[in-house]
Amino acid sequence: MTPDEILSRVLYKDQDVIVLDKPAGLAVHAGPNSPDHLELYLGPLAFGWAEAPKLAHRLDRDTSGCLILGRHAKSIKRLGRMFEHHRVEKLYWSVCHGSPEGDSGTVDAPLLKVSGRGQGWRIKVDPAGQSSITDWSVLGRGGGLSWIEWRPRTGRTHQIRIHAQHLGCPLLGDAYYGPDPETMTRLHLLAREVSFPALSPSKDPVRVTAPPPGHMVEALRVCGWREDTRPS
């Protein structure tokens, strides 16, 4: 990304935090398969300070939307405590194959990370796994798809993707947990909103909403979304 491109993705900024609209397809940090990653492009977000902001949490490579950055060491530490004590509320949108029964509910299904020979790792629902709970509600349906809002109470790897599969409506574009491992469709998962207490006592709580990325717009429209839809 160019400096102008990363700056255009700033959704919120104060003296402590930045909330960035992370693009789909870009890992947030370096890894064996991630030589290109978001941390390479954070320099322009220093806004004249000595250091660039740092990640306060992470999003999967293929998930777009709200990503919180801390602008200094104290804010990173305080944000870490907020995540630890579940004071950061996260809301996601997805488009799914099919539709769950009913219009809302809760998935309470523990998740376990498993490894296979030569196949890397993946997550599955297993009683031996970690407690994983997600509240959901259907916002729209159409064309064999459903537009679902997810509010995770826990923060497990791939939690929404696997809970959607467990509910019988895997995410559109999910090559790992969806019905088509050869899909060329991007993952339809958006970190739609984050809200958390302001780090400065004199400020109001922070609530930030990310717009749907271009690759999700068509499917969302099929399910009834319009550009003038009010944030949740």
UniProtKB/TrEMBL annotation:
GO BP, sorted A to Z: enzyme-directed rRNA pseudouridine synthesis
Highest taxon above the source species: Bacteria
Pseudouridine synthase RsuA/RluA-like domain location: 16-166
UniProt key word Isomerase: yes
Position of the signal peptide: none
UniProt KW NADP keyword: no
Keywords, in A-Z order: Isomerase
Stretches of the chain forming a coiled coil according to its record: none
Gene Ontology MF, one: pseudouridine synthase activity
Protein family according to the UniProt entry: Belongs to the pseudouridine synthase RluA family.
Protein name per Swiss-Prot or TrEMBL: Ribosomal large subunit pseudouridine synthase C
Organism: Paramagnetospirillum magnetotacticum MS-1
